[in-house]
Design brief:
Blueprint: H1 14-27, H2 32-37, H3 41-55, H4 61-74, H5 78-90, H6 95-102, H7 109-123, H8 130-138, H9 143-166
Length: about 180
């Protein structure tokens, strides 16, 4: 049962209502997480603005979904793993790629480097050692991409923690825990 109840769409007004309508139009549904964030217009707008900034970066939707899956798994966010499993499929990831991303793995060396850095950021609470940053750069990335991985990690930590605190009811197809 949710601790923070999702706001009924009919209770939303003004900019919050417009934002929820835009999300529903884009996704075809209005997921519980967005209705939960709508309890605070500041929280909903923070999410929308950061997600928009991340989407306007260098990483395509599939790479951003891979990061979301790796971060969601690292933070044990069942809601985000379920949501990004579905969204990852819409972004072109197959089931093997989705499950690999959850484990911060990818066959492609560039995606593998991105996921390794994303997990290092989460696992070390941002205190990433220079060797890990150098390895990321050796994979063909620069300083801008380090920060872009960070933006995507921060966005997903925000949603992970929102769902932990709110105990958001999962309204996407559930995903089993990864085998240890």
């Amino acid at each position: 049962m949710p601790y923070i109840k999702p706001l009924a769409r009919s209770a939303a007004t003004g900019a919050t209502a417009a934002t929820l309508d835009a999300i529903q139009k884009k996704l075809g549904v209005l997921p519980n997480m967005f209705r939960t964030l709508a309890n605070s217009p500041a929280a909903l707008q923070a999410y929308v603005q950061l997600a928009g900034a991340a989407a306007g970066g260098k990483f395509d939707a599939a790479r951003r979904e891979r990061i979301a899956l790796a971060v969601g798994e690292a933070n044990d966010c069942g809601y985000c793993v379920a949501a990004h499993g579905a969204l990852g499929g819409l972004a072109g990831l197959d089931e093997v790629q989705i499950e690999a991303a959850r484990a911060a793995r990818a066959e492609d060396p560039h995606n593998a480097a991105v996921l390794t850095l994303a997990r290092a950021i989460v696992d070390n609470r941002g205190h990433v050692d220079v060797a890990a940053l150098d390895a990321f750069k050796a994979a063909g990335f620069g300083d801008g991409e380090i920060l872009e991985v960070l933006v995507n990690v921060v966005l997903n930590v925000f949603t992970n923690y929102t769902n932990h605190i709110a105990r958001t009811e999962i309204d996407f197809p559930l995903r089993a825990k990864l085998a240890a």
